[in-house]
Predict the structure.
Amino acid sequence: MSNLPISADDEMRKPFLWSWGQAKPAPNKYSWRNLSSVLWVEQPVGTGFSHGVPNIKDENDLAAQNFYLTGESYAGTYVPYIANYIYEHPDALDLKLQGTLTSDPSLSYDVVHEQIPAVDFVHRYENVFAFKYVCLSHLTSLSGGSPLYSLTFLAQLDVLNKKCNCADYTKNYLKYPPKGPLPLPGKSTEANKGCNMWDLIFEEALRLNPAFNVYRIFDTYPILWDVLGFPGSFPPVQLLPLYFDRKDVKKAIHAPVNVTWEECSSRNVIPHGDASLPSALSVLPNVIENNKRTAIMHGLADFILIAEG
């Protein structure tokens, strides 16, 4: 479920490996190709080298057109909707879906994925974020007017975390069996005014470490060259054009030379916005119930979509 000519969402899938700072690709002896035939298809229209003009209305519209089993990131929305469509329309496809696998998936609202677990994430990696220092506070107005000048940035975050109803959230609500639907910390599915702690953390982390990578928080200088130019906190400026956007590479893999390749498409693949509910709040329970096996994996160093969210 990727717009990559080679899948970058899981080391086990790739026919070859091309890691950060690596000048040339190397064969992957653990590739899925060793056990099975694998076909990578770019979708929705608008990603990678895909042809056509984006025209879908929502995830159900997407699911009616394509079939996938695995994916990463926003495929946490795509994959469950596609799988659910297959289960709800058993005669539409002459294949039996066995299960789904998603890695670092987007399953819910950003306030759940990012805001609620953000400060707990910083505490887990305190030595990486290095927020234990005294600073002039830019958070004073968010604390009811009380001065926070003598507090470290981490202590200021703790004050905000409590004020924004995110402190001890996972401790209080992440229990089995659940007592009911998980409550939102604010008044909507967006962070309340003054409670965008994820952005505050990102800006301060970037100030301390200009090489801070939201996808892999342990990165420091030098920022290693990456064949895909992504993921990272910055646009790919080290080498342009990107490898898969070079004309010679496009010709070699029989891709359209007039399409600009991007790992994360800048085209709006759902032109009028995705009106679908997050998969965890809609179709995912039914998919899990029908799947023979459901795998959801998440990297613990990922700050863009935090595992506890």
In short: The radius of gyration is 21 Å. The first helix runs from residue 59 to 63.
